[in-house]
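Progress report, Aim 2. The chain analyzed during this reporting quarter is listed below.
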Amino acid sequence: MGYDIERFVGYVNEGLLCSICRDVLEDPLQAPCEHAFCTACIHGWLVHHSNCPEDRQVIDVSLLRPLYRYMKNDLNRLQLHCRNREYGCEMVCSLESIDRHERECEYSQIPCSNAGCTVQVERRNLDGHLAVCEYRSRECPNGCGYTILSAEDTQHNCVAELRTELELLRSEMICRVEEAKHEMESRLDSQRRHMVQKESILQNEIEELKSQISRLMSDVRSLMAAERQHRQELEQAELEKREL
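Predicted structure tokens for the chain:
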């Protein structure tokens, strides 16, 4: 369906009217025969027909194209009233910007955001309605902290609510303690495994050092034995020298 022609200010060219609903084109498409339609109108027409509603030429959805640019520009420049005019909005703007304005219009009827409330109010009055809405959430006046969501909730039992809240807190605390315990145990196990690995590495290094020391001591003993042999040979040579 198109835009109601009664909303527009001034003359609207016949070529900018939908050939089916006869209102101003909305999301327009054009047939090869150059007749223009609202997208919703022509799609609905082609469900039961296979021709143009104006000249009866055969058309198909695949043959529909966007409106010529100059026609699109003419369409976008048309001035029209906000759809909330009956509620007091006096805004007149171009068709190109009307959707943006109406999404933010202070006179738009919007539903209350409180669950269970079916009231619709103007956007500008929403804050005032929320302040007095019987479905608004508020805390119990007796100080128990319970959130009142409806008129029935005002009859709640504060002691029972506090007991329930206490049980929830106790359960949450127990869960957190268990989580902390498991996390600590996991960390300790990880550290223990790391220490065992380090101990094994150090033990291997100690054994390697012992082996190296043993080899060094063996080399030292060999050198000392060689030195004694060399000294004995020198002494023997000295005796032979004296005898000569």
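The longest helix spans residues 158-243. The helical segments are 39-48, 69-77, 95-104, 126-132, 158-243. These observations will guide the mutagenesis work planned for the next reporting period.
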